[in-house]
Amino acid sequence: MVSGKRLLVDLTPLRQSPPFRRLLAGSTLSAVGGSMTTFAVALQIYQITRSPFAVGAIGIARMAPALAIGLLGGSLADAVDRRKLVLITTTSLAVVSAGLTAQAFAGLGMVWLPYALVAVQSALGSVNAPARQTFLPQLLPPAQLMAGLALNRISFQLMLIGGPALGGLITAATGSLRASYLADTLSFAAALYGVAGLPAMQPREDKARPGPRAVAAGLGLIARSQVLAGAFLTDLNATVFGLPMALFPAINAERFGGSPSTLGLLTAAIGVGGLVSSVFSGPVGKVSRRGLAMLCSAAVWGAAFAGFALAPALWLALSLLAVAGAADTFTVVFRSAIVQSVTPGRFRGRILAVDYVVGAGGGEVGNLEAGAVGSLTSPTIGALSGGLAAIAGTVVIGLALPAFARYRQRPAADMEVPPGKTVAAASASG
Hints:
Elements (H helix, E strand, L loop, with lengths): L3 H4 L4 H5 L1 H32 L2 H26 L4 H25 L5 H22 L2 H4 L5 H30 L3 H19 L15 H13 L1 H16 L6 H8 L4 H20 L10 H21 L3 H29 L5 H29 L2 H22 L1 H5 L16 H6 L2
């Protein structure tokens, strides 16, 4: 019988690595602030235009720069001190956030300005996020990497739930979006604090010059590795086919009365399931067949959404969405662990940039796919067919890429460590 302590997420990285502890705390606070801005931008665009399409177009403003710049940003992270790069991009993101705050306080009402600032924000984020993700293997020993990724996932779930909730409460209390924007701008102090105390994060001596050729080399590595290709394809399959959030309003109206509060519950249920599974993720670190585990988690994700499509009662629908959120957490943690462990240090920035682009683009494409199928058929068929397609896709990937399905975790031999330090010494510095 598994004890309660072993079920809980492993807190060893927080206890043994002060730099990781500061980084996680600063990133979490800043991410919650960023989520408040995401909430505020959507509401501001709707208040100006009263157009759901205009709100949906925010996704295009975010996705286009991420796809255009993300991969090149990864090649840059493999050629410079990643800590300095993150400090520069984080400072730049703070300036953009200040711009959003300023336009809200000025009451300009120009719809193009939030779009433009969001696009710049996305471009900077597509460089910042992959470079930031390269820190973990340098701050934590291989045995603690899985625990560190699970703690990062808790941070993500707190952002997913806390940001919109706080933004909604503050907006309702003040009658304005200004406080949400201002809170995000101020939260960048925490992000800068978390990064400033880290050791230098220089890439290896055989670093590649940033540019298209370096990007192509990174993509070539993925093409040659069934394990990396399987991890990315499994994630794309799950998000493109099994993410019917665009259908939630229609399903809510058809089946659950159409109340905005109910719609909010549908969205929050995924985050709650993800948060609970992150907290009780202790046994995940013991799983060695991580390729197979990722495939199984992705299949559960698809099955949960297929069940949601047919659920006649609200409690059952919410329960299945919570299961989907839990499966998503395990899928992401397994994918992140595989990518961090398999990728050679000199390629880590480029491969994590692909990881970021897959995450940023897959969800948007998934919403478009679900919306298109739901419009041509019905919302129920759109959600059901997507969930079943996600299950079928995991089977195809497992059969087509047997090395991914058989992949077992091995000790990471290719660890990047600051010159003259061991991994443990790097973890204790700062």
